[in-house]
Amino acid sequence: MQPLPLAMTPPAEAERLRRQEGRYVVLLVAVLLPMLLLPLTAVVSNGGLTVLALLFSLLILQSLHTLPRQGAGRGARFGRAAHLLLGLLSLVLIWIPPLTGSLRPPSLKLSLLTSLSLFFLVTSVRLVQRLARAPRVNARVMAGSSAGYLLLGMTGGVLATATEEFVPGSFRLDAVVDHELLLDRLTYFSFVTIAGLGPGDIVAGNAMGERFVILLSVSSTLYVALLVAMLLGRFIASQEVQYLEQDFRLEAQQRPGQPEGEQAEEGPPPVRPPQ
Question: At 80, which helix (H) or strand (E)?
């Protein structure tokens, strides 16, 4: 189904879309907080684990709140159920280290990193799908697209940490770090990679790390290209619809034989912007 401009949608649907747009701003804040406060998780052992759990819990809950089920089909129900189950599993696993005081055994760390990686990947895909359905482009929708880009960097950091845990030596760090610093360091590496700054103080250490860098770089480039094209096309289509409606009203007012001030009974033809 092709999206309609807000002016042509039913009042209830338009109100629902406005409420969803407001969630994008909160999601952007929820993504920014881990980026800014991750260094605190490497300062204090138990306190750092608690801060990490709080930050990721907020991001997980806000992601689930921002991306409800879309449509009534079987695929929509399955996607929402998978997203919800991964989020709940990640919430349970993220709070085990603060309660026990450590990230051991190693199986717990691997399970946590795997669930977080899958959850953030599904969140990124669902966010792009939701942005593709946006009927208009405004500051809130742009906040959602920015949150998606930052979420891609966070996903890359978690995936890089999981890769290093599964295949030690995948990345060469500039200094020896403990496991609590690893997520922070590799999140920094992820954002350096998607920003296209090139190799820095952290580089790939083997073939696995090199393939990860390639996939992350290509994914970020495709995301930016897809999002810019999608939002720009939606903005142009919305402007065209407004121009057509204005032209139709002017033409109706200038019809011969029509009393002055009387508007045409027929409304403008339904025009839908291309998907």
Answer: helix 74-94
- pLDDT tens-digit series, residues 142-188: 888 889 899 999 999 999 988 988 888 889 886 655 555 788 888 88
Answer yes or no: is 268 within a domain. Answer: no
| pTM for this predicted structure | 0.76
Q: Do 83 and 67 form a contact (C-beta atoms < 8 A)?
A: yes
How far is it, in rounded angstroms, from Cα 43 to Cα 220?
A: 30
Instruction: State both tokens at 17.
Output: 């879309």
In a domain, 269, yes or no: no
Report long-range pairs for 29-38 (Cβ below 8 Å, ≥24 apart): 30/58, 30/59, 30/62, 30/63, 30/147, 31/59, 31/147, 31/150, 31/151, 31/154, 32/150, 33/58, 33/59, 34/59, 34/154, 35/150, 35/153, 35/154, 35/187, 35/191, 38/183, 38/184, 38/187
Q: In this structure, is residue 104 part of a structural domain?
A: yes
Q: How many domains does the chain have?
A: 1
In b/e form, how buried is each residue of 106-127, taking b as 16+ CB within 10 angstroms?
A: eeebeebbbbbbbbbbbbbebb
CB atoms within 10 A of CB 159: 22
Residue 256 forms part of a structural domain: no
